[in-house]
UniProtKB/TrEMBL annotation:
Entry EC number(s): 2.6.1.19, 2.6.1.22
Protein name (Swiss-Prot/TrEMBL): 4-aminobutyrate aminotransferase/(S)-3-amino-2-methylpropionate transaminase
Annotated source species: Rhizobium leguminosarum
Keywords: Aminotransferase, Pyridoxal phosphate, Transferase
CDD domains in alphabetical order: OAT_like (cd00610)
Enzyme class, UniProt record, top EC level: transferase
MF term (GO), any: (S)-3-amino-2-methylpropionate transaminase activity
Matching NCBIfam families: GABAtrnsam (TIGR00700)
Cofactor(s) annotated in UniProt: pyridoxal 5'-phosphate
Family of the protein in this entry: Belongs to the class-III pyridoxal-phosphate-dependent aminotransferase family.
TM region(s), chain numbering: none
The keyword Cell membrane appears for this protein: no
InterPro entries named in the record: 4NH2But_aminotransferase_bac, Aminotrans_3, Aminotrans_3_PPA_site, Class-III_PLP-dep_AT, PyrdxlP-dep_Trfase, PyrdxlP-dep_Trfase_major, PyrdxlP-dep_Trfase_small
Length: 435
């Protein structure tokens, strides 16, 4: 029995079945490479789900954490605050694209950031309603699931969910949903389900993560900003997956030139350490009463030290520019591949910066989803030493999230493996025939 097989057996006997995993048991990792317990090498195009934007174990991040560990690892910011938290808040206030004076609070996970942003918006507006969008993902807590617009695997069997959460259509040009249709759906929601003057906030991802890397059109975000201003609604940018240089800008909203009121961050913020943040307009952030925000581990000193180092690395290594170049190389390879004879099941290639995905279909005319093909490509890639992730409400999208620090030769090697995996998967009969 291999070490991986042994661990898989132990996992089944010890870990709750609802915790879904892959069969890659990590032993060590460095930048964009990971080795399992059997010594097999993988190129990592998942980056811990967009967490390791600065790569596995970036030296600057590791040194910052080691230095902090020599001082203290936990005091609870509410009990004995520390300079690192304040410094990180100052830096996030300076870069968050609200166009206003900002304030920041730190917590631990993306879901916590989202929940606190909702709390803050409700405290500021004195309204209950929250509008999210179809295909959205905002976390696995009860409120996070209520906001999420994807049933499997996140919402099935876990309801009922909190009230006063509503969903409107998200634009999807590939499936024929235009910005105008999405805005019309929002207007129908106002007419049929909730008065816009009872809505505290819109929450929207600039690029949907779990929803399939659907990019919010500029005009859609512009219209949301206009509607938010018209009705006194707080506009929350969920930048948990798209933020921290992933899209070629520090935040995805910057591509549209639209200024949100609040920004949620997590994932890539601390280079592999658990940390999240809500940053936004001071008058909104200060609406909650003292003691109403926070948590025992909120702004953990080790994670804060890592995040301050991550911001240094993003700036010094020009990771926004690098993300744009990574995205260009991936997109060029995928669009070239999709144009070849026999590759018609690649229905769409899309994304921003180094947040790129491709959608698998039975054919480009009907655009029927091909989830079994998607799973085969992921499996073929894994067998060849490449880690991929799928996503999408139709379970037929493969997302590519390599670290922004990936070496160019490793990126090329990974793309070669991806192409081989696609070719191998496409050699199998169609989903219906294989079923």
């Amino acid at each position: 029995m291999t070490a991986s097989a042994d661990l898989h057996s132990r996992q089944k006997a010890a870990v709750a079945g609802g915790v879904g995993t892959r069969a890659i048991f990590a032993q060590r990792a460095q930048n964009a490479e990971l080795w399992d317990v059997d010594g097999k090498r993988f190129i990592d195009f998942a980056a811990g789900i967009a967490v390791n934007n600065t790569g596995h174990r970036h030296p600057r991040v590791m040194q910052a954490v080691a230095d902090q560990a020599e001082q203290f690892t936990h005091t609870c910011f509410h009990v004995a605050p520390y300079e690192g938290y304040v410094r990180l808040a100052e830096r996030l206030n300076a870069i968050a694209p609200t166009g206003q004076e900002n304030r920041t609070m730190l917590v631990t996970t993306g879901a916590e950031a989202v929940e606190n942003a909702v709390k803050i918006a409700r405290a500021y507006t004195k309204r209950p309603g929250i509008v999210a969008f179809s295909g959205a993902f905002h976390g696995r807590t009860m409120l996070g699931m209520a906001l999420t617009g994807k049933v499997m695997p996140y919402k099935k069997n876990f309801g009922p969910f909190p009230a006063d959460v509503y969903h409107a259509p998200f634009p999807n040009p590939f499936l024929g949903i235009s910005t105008e249709e999405a805005i019309s759906g929002l207007e129908r929601l106002f007419a049929a389900d909730i008065d816009p003057e009872r809505i505290a906030a819109f929450i929207v991802e600039p690029v949907q993560g779990e929803g399939g890397f659907n990019v919010a059109p500029k005009e859609f975000l512009v219209r949301l900003r206009e509607m938010a201003d018209r009705y006194g609604i707080v506009l929350i940018a969920d930048e948990v997956q798209a933020g921290m240089a992933r899209t070629g800008r520090m935040f995805g909203f910057e591509h549209a030139g639209v200024e949100p009121d609040l920004v949620t961050m997590a994932k890539g913020l601390a280079g592999g350490f658990p940390l999240s943040a809500v940053t936004g307009r001071a008058e909104i952030m200060n609406a909650a009463h003292p003691g109403g925000l926070g948590g025992t581990y909120a702004g953990n000193p080790l994670s804060v030290a890592a995040a301050n180092a991550v911001l240094d690395v993003i700036d010094e290594e020009k990771l926004c520019e690098r993300a744009a170049e990574i995205g260009r190389r991936i997109t060029d390879r995928l669009t070239s591949l999709a144009s070849r004879q026999g590759m018609e099941r690649i229905g769409d290639v899309r994304g921003l910066g180094a947040m790129i995905a491709f959608e698998l279909v039975e054919d480009r005319q009907t655009k029927t989803a091909a989830p079994a093909m998607t799973n085969r490509i992921v499996a073929e890639a894994e067998a060849r030493g490449l880690i991929l992730l799928s996503c999408g409400t139709r379970l037929n999208v493969i997302r590519l999230l390599p670290p922004l620090t990936i070496e160019w030769d490793v990126l090329s090697e990974g793309l070669n493996i991806l192409e081989a995996a696609i070719e191998a998967a496409f050699s199998v009969p169609s989903d219906s025939a294989a079923a």
